[in-house]
Structure to design on (622 residues):
């Protein structure tokens, strides 16, 4: 029972972690609280759905395409909206991402309607009986995707030139500009990257979730909480924060009460933030 | 003597408010349509909440994303007081205001120490807590909400008018009170301290301002004002439920109302509320077969306003432009008199 709950917690945790890493990236580099991250995930789910419907590709096969499409969408949104908003006040930046989420949710509702959808035929489905737990293969896909995305992101941020440029920009924009880093490009790639993370996440989530246009909004606040738990905009912190969130979510849901599990998440968050105002791993 | 000098120094404000109030008082004359009247009432309710948020968000610079909590608590106090005990909203509104201020005091203690995005997220999380509690609390109706249409008392006592226009004037009265309150706060030492904290908390503290104290009071006052907005909303529709009172989008819409109109100004929240409500209501009514179009239009509009008018729509009406307009109107009038 305990191991089973742990497995479910890990699944939820990786969803939150995928969401939180995108938020943390935008937060850490551009200091924007991005409300549109959950909606990027939702858009990615619908792209996956339509690729599956018209070309009959499995979500796993469609994933590279979705990631690229989402990356380009991120670049487009950055150039059209965010680059301009960055010159304005912080509250304006936050509200613009919220307005963007309104546009995306209601735009998708206008285009495809508000019904719940799911992908009918999957490459991996069913359960594996491992003796002590029954692991659903669909959830395993989600966990592996999340770990792979995290690994790739770490590799990208630490070993590639543009990743290093992004980290330098996040530490000190002016100084990074002085040593010859094109900070505009760094910002642009960051925003594209966070949309691409949402793309991978949304694509993997279609394996396991029913989805409708409002799904991103439901996850949003928990993504934020995960980022806060991890502490100021660090990607590793966001990943761990997401896992902690998933564990709290599933453990309170199983052992205490399903109705109050989100209450537990919020209360634990409030307690942590009251005593450590910069998050668990914050500086 | 003092009154005279006060009137003189507030001449511009009095002129502005008399013009705007005249427009608002005459607004129901435009159309006798029920829908139009409801939209007007709703605009005023959102305007009151915007004015409330403006105290903490606009003047003190603490951009709370959780004011739906006070909106919800206010509406529930009014609804349950009327349904269970037959208490008039005129009475329960004081209870709601005091309750919300106490809640704000308790919540504000830990939360107001947080800065920036952390404060925003923490306030969002606390509304989420309240929403879950209200949704699962069977005693107060749970997820199905509360119906409290009241037939036993007079319309004035229960604040539920068959004729929406009467309700509109009550809302207008409250709004006038809060506009004057905002003006008093803006001109008082309290307002200056709040703006100093907004500009730079460290330097405000170093010049002797107790920032925690003033932030807490700003938060409490704004909670109280939003609670009145909640009561009025409840009495307007006679039905409330946690799903429509306490979602994240309500908290954000309160912020959007203020930012669209003009943050830190008096007329900004009022203007923003009217624009938001009219777009929302009429887009929903006109395109009722197309789900989601109203918020789509609204979202696009917000993007444009935040990008191109970062100080809100009121920044279009600068002193010079108003002066020019006044001259033009005045000039025309003298011409017609001559003729």
């Amino acid at each position: 029972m305990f191991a089973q709950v742990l497995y479910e917690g890990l699944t939820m945790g990786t969803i939150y972690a995928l969401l939180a890493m995108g938020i943390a990236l935008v937060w850490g580099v551009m200091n924007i609280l991005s409300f549109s991250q959950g909606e990027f995930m939702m858009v990615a789910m619908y792209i996956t759905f339509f690729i599956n419907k018209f070309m009959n590709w499995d979500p796993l096969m469609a994933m590279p395409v979705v990631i690229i499409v989402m990356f380009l969408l991120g670049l487009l949104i950055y150039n059209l909206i965010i680059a301009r908003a960055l010159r304005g006040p912080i509250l304006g930046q936050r509200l613009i991402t919220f307005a963007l989420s309104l546009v995306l949710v209601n735009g998708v509702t206008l285009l495809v309607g508000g019904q719940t959808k799911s992908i009918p035929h999957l490459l991996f489905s069913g359960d594996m009986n491992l003796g002590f737990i029954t692991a659903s293969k669909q959830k395993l896909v989600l966990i592996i995707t999340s770990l792979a995305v995290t690994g790739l992101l770490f590799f990208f941020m630490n070993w590639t030139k543009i990743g290093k440029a992004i980290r330098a920009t996040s530490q000190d924009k002016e100084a990074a500009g002085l040593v010859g880093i094109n900070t505009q490009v760094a910002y642009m790639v960051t925003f594209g990257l966070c949309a691409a993370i949402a793309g991978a996440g949304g694509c993997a989530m279609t394996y396991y979730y029913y989805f409708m246009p409002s799904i991103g909004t439901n996850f949003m606040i928990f993504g934020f909480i995960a980022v806060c738990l991890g502490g100021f905009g660090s990607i590793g912190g966001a990943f761990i924060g997401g896992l902690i969130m998933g564990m709290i979510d599933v453990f309170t849901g199983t052992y205490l009460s399903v109705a109050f599990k989100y209450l537990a998440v919020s209360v634990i968050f409030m307690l942590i933030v009251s005593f450590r105002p910069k998050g668990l791993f914050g500086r | 003597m003092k009154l005279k000098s006060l009137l003189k120094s507030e001449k511009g404000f009095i002129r502005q408010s008399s013009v705007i109030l005249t427009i608002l008082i005459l607004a129901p004359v435009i159309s006798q349509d029920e829908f139009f009247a409801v939209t007007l009432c709703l605009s005023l309710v959102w305007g009151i909440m915007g004015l409330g948020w403006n105290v903490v968000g606009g003047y003190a610079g603490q951009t709370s994303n959780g004011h739906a909590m006070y909106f919800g608590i206010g509406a529930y106090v009014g609804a349950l007081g009327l349904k269970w005990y037959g208490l008039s909203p005129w009475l329960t509104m004081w209870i709601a205001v005091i309750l919300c201020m106490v809640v704000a005091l308790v919540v504000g203690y830990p939360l107001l120490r947080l800065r920036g995005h952390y404060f925003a997220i923490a306030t969002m999380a606390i509304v989420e807590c309240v929403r879950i509690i209200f949704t699962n609390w069977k005693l107060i109706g749970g997820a199905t909400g509360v119906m409290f249409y009241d037939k036993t008392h007079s319309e004035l006592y229960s604040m539920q008018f068959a004729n929406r226009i009467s309700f509109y004037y009550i809302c207008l009265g409250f709004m006038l009170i809060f506009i004057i309150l905002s003006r008093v706060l803006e001109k008082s030492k309290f307002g200056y301290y709040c703006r100093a904290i907004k500009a730079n908390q460290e330097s405000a503290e170093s010049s002797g301002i107790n920032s925690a104290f003033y932030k807490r009071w700003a938060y409490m006052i704004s909670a109280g004002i939003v609670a009145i907005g909640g009561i009025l909303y409840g009495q307007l529709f006679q039905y409330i439920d946690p799903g429509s009172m306490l979602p994240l989008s309500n908290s954000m819409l309160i912020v959007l109302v203020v930012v669209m109109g003009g943050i830190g100004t008096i007329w900004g929240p009022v203007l923003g509320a009217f624009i938001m409500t009219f777009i929302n209501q009429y887009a929903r009514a006109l395109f009722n077969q197309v789900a989601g179009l109203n918020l789509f239009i609204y979202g696009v509009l917000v993007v444009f306003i935040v990008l191109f008018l970062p100080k809100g729509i009121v920044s279009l009406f600068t002193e010079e432009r108003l002066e020019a307009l006044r001259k033009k109107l005045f000039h025309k009038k003298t011409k017609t008199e001559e003729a």
Remarks:
- The longest strand of chain B covers residues 146-147.
- Chain B has a mean pLDDT of 87.
- Residues 34-308 of chain B form one domain.
- The interface with chain A takes residues 57, 63, 110-111, 113-118, 120-122, 124-126, 128-129, 132-133, 135-136, 248-249, 252, 255-256, 259, 263, 290-296, 298-300, 302-303, 306-307, 310 of chain B (CB under 8 Å).
